[in-house]
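Private note to self, pasted from the team thread so I don't lose it. C-alpha cells:
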C-alpha cells in the first residue's frame, strides 16, 4: 500500500516525480473556464511533474498518456503531444518541471501514465509515470521551480 500521495519512479534513466494538491475554485486558471471537463468537474487538482535525466544519454519528450481514475472508479485516458505546449530535451543531469491541472467530478482520484521519449538516434521508448493521488488532504506543492 502506498504511504505517500506522491510518485517517484525511474525508467531507462529518466526519473519522473509527481505530486498534486487541491485547488480552491477561486484559484482556477482562466484556461480551465472553457474546458469541457471542467464544466462537469466539481474538484480541481494542480499537479507538478519533475523529470530528470539520471541516465547517460539525451532524450526528448514527444507525447503523454494519462490514466485518470475518479473515486467512483471511472477511468479517463488523456493523450496528447508534448507537455504544456513544450517538448523538453534532457541531456544527462538536466531536469524539467511543469505545472498542470486535472478536474475531477469526485473529491479524490488517481493519476498515472507514461511519456513517450526519443533518443538522439531516433529510437523511441516509454517512460512510466507512477500512480499519484489527487486527495483533498495533500500538502501544498513546492512551487519554487516550474521550468528547467
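Design output:
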Amino acid at each position: 500500500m502506498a504511504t505517500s500521495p506522491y510518485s517517484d519512479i525511474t525508467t531507462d534513466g529518466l526519473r519522473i516525480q509527481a505530486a498534486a494538491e487541491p485547488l480552491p475554485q477561486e484559484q482556477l486558471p482562466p484556461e480551465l473556464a472553457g474546458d469541457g471537463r471542467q464544466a462537469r468537474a466539481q474538484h480541481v487538482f494542480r499537479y507538478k511533474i519533475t523529470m530528470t535525466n539520471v541516465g547517460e544519454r539525451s532524450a526528448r519528450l514527444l507525447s503523454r498518456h494519462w490514466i485518470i481514475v475518479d473515486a467512483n472508479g471511472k477511468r479517463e485516458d488523456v493523450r496528447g503531444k508534448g507537455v504544456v505546449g513544450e517538448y523538453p530535451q534532457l541531456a544527462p543531469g538536466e531536469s524539467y518541471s511543469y505545472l498542470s491541472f486535472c478536474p475531477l467530478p469526485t473529491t479524490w482520484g488517481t493519476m498515472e501514465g507514461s511519456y513517450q521519449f526519443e533518443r538522439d538516434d531516433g529510437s523511441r521508448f516509454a517512460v512510466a509515470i507512477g500512480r499519484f493521488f489527487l486527495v483533498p488532504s495533500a500538502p501544498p506543492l513546492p512551487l519554487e521551480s516550474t521550468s528547467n
